[in-house]
Amino acid sequence: MKMDGVLKLYFGESNLPTPDYIKRAAARALEEGYTFYTENAGLPGLRQDLADYYRRLQGVALDPQSEIVVSASGVQALNVGIRCVLNPGDEALLLSPAWPNASAIVRMDNAVPVDVPLLLRRGLYRIDFDALRAALTPRTRLLVYTSPSNPLGWVATEDEQAELLGFARRHDLWLLADEVYDRLYYGAAELGAPAPSILRQATRGDAVMVAHSFSKTYCMTGWRLGWLVARRDVAERATQLNEFIISHAASFIQRAAQAAIAQGEDELRRMLIRLKENRDFCLAALRQIPGVTVPSPDGAFYVFPRIDGLKDSFAFCWKLLQETKVGMAPGVAFGSGGEGSVRICYAAERAILEPAMERLARFLSRSWG
Ligand SMILES: Cc1ncc(COP(=O)(O)O)c(C=O)c1O
Known about the structure:
alpha/beta, 11 helices, 16 strands, 40% helix, binds pyridoxal-5'-phosphate
């Protein structure tokens, strides 16, 4: 962070600023008096807009009154969701490699996270259901997965989601899907269509939760706004829990989020075109480097190349930074299955990505070849 001139590809956000129409909506909301307390579950208007958004984009009917809870970020949605369903001593299965926060939240609840790595076969990630079954114990209560995934960009197919849901039903587990990257999806015929949500297959009576966020879709990371979709009993508990954590997300930011939902599609499509080009550029550049293999990700804004012979990704990233001023995230930070890889965020300009890929290639041929 203190070093000047670093090509930063280690972070988890786009370098685009929040679009102006969202900033203007926040200013307008302040003028209009959205400066008071509001409902613990969030502004009713925003919850209605979110329900309409699910109907339009995922073909899913949700009750905005009882199944959607607005939170102050995706990470807070994960926090209240996990907290509502785990008791101390319970165990949670987490598909990995994964962004480490869900696992840390499980530990904060005095429960036990158990990583279950995805399998990489012929360039494709898939869920290891045998390993999931083997990891079950009488204390297992929760299964968490992220699709599209950070750091892999992997997206669970609808068949895999059906199997996860069946597994959770059979073993009486809560299934928590982190879907914060669902709009950053390149696997559909039309750019802008979301990655499939687990909510398409779950009934409203299923023990299923979805954590979501405005951060990634609308370049609003610093605003801190997200939501949780959950079965109504847990949504009610999450709403109560909100009271004692943050009471509610900031009122004027919730109004700005309504503008994001209403007007955000064109800007999102422009961002997706740029992200897809960046992804393809990085994949092509990485695949030319001897000893590097990289699966093609269908979502989010990360690639996760595996480097032959790499045993200590932290030391590797440190040396890469010192010698070339390229910042990447070590794979080891993402739990089991992450070591041996690095995470590259490609939501940056080509003027950053191009020299970064060149320097990585040179560094690998010098120090690692
Ligand atoms: C997989 C995943 N889930 C949740 C979040 C949380 O997003 P936020 O707290 O900004 O809404 C992130 C952010 O990087 C993420 O990568």
